[in-house]
Give the backbone structure.
Amino acid sequence: MAVADTTLDVIRTVDGVPLMVKLRRAERMRKIKALGLIMPLFVFLVVSFLWPIASMLFISVQNPEMAEVLPRTAAEIQLWDGEGFPGENVLRTFATELREAKKAKTHGKVAKRLNYDIAGFRSLIVKTARKMPPPDTPNLLDELIKIDKRWGELKYWRAMKKASPPYTVFYLLAAMDLDIDVFGNIVSAPENVSIYIGLLERTIWISVVVTVACLLLGYPIAYLLATLPTKQSNLLLILVLLPFWTSLLVRTTAWVVLLQTQGLVNDLGMLIGLWSERLELIHNRTGVYVAMVHILLPFMVLPMFAVMKGISPSHMRAAASLGANPLRSFLIVYLPQTIPGVAAGVLLVFIISLGYYITPALVGGPKDQMLSYFIAFYTNRTVNWGMAAALSVLLLAFVLVFFALYNRLVGIDKLKMS
């Protein structure tokens, strides 16, 4: 209940508080309650999605090994111009810190980092740390060359200079088949290590083929599910969803059994006369396509089925009553209404395909591995987190570019199931 204060010309409630103040308080409390409701979801997104991505971006530019293990050497060698050999003060600092790192057993960390730049640098650091003369030894560079003649090559000192800053674009450039020289210039990486752009192209091509195959196979399946009576469509829908109840590893391994040279597919083909000799269907691109299409097909069918189920059959009958033949009715009346489902299915399958690892690793050959295989390789085998993070950033950047182009050409509003 509110009363009017004629003196102040302000509407007040019965407890004397201005009504506008009460309304602002109520609105503020409503916003606080709404924020409280969405806060758990926001925290979950930050912890499970945004924080890992931010960590990945940070790791891709981290370069802490030299700065942590040989901090004074890293600081002094950055002042070196890269021409000629480093000065005596740099060499003595390097000798002192490497001897200390050998005692602390931390020299392997910097040796591993330098090995990313030049293969064999790890063994050079380990060997030198074991035989390093005292820092006050005259002609220290000559003594280092006596330990290993590779110290007489400038490229090893330049690699140390390049590895000395605590942050670097080395990994990101390497993921794009580029490199940065000692003078700070971006140059093309050597041909023997320029593989990642080709890997990205292969990953995109496999994803495109799998997406197109899923679309061609999934559209008639979704149409059949949407037009059959409910009892029959529910049974078929269970068959479509059945792969979700089986482990991805089990499904992939099953294709290894089926597609091998002595497998059931070859046996059936030979039996019915489709081919006269057993085919190589595994550890090649054919096996990758077959296994990935089988696994990802439900992700294409379900969005299209959801849209097709909402299309009234009377639309096609109306088109037929106006003189359109079945093909024309389908192309002009039915197909445009299914575009939201097609758009959602294509987007979902393509993005999932880009990050596939287990299936290509098991059924594909060496030339069929996708970018995710090398991300796992650097993470699990070489423990090169910087390179793994840089390749992940490359894949993420392509997904964002694809999503932006998709939004511009198709429009995210096409994904609305209405």
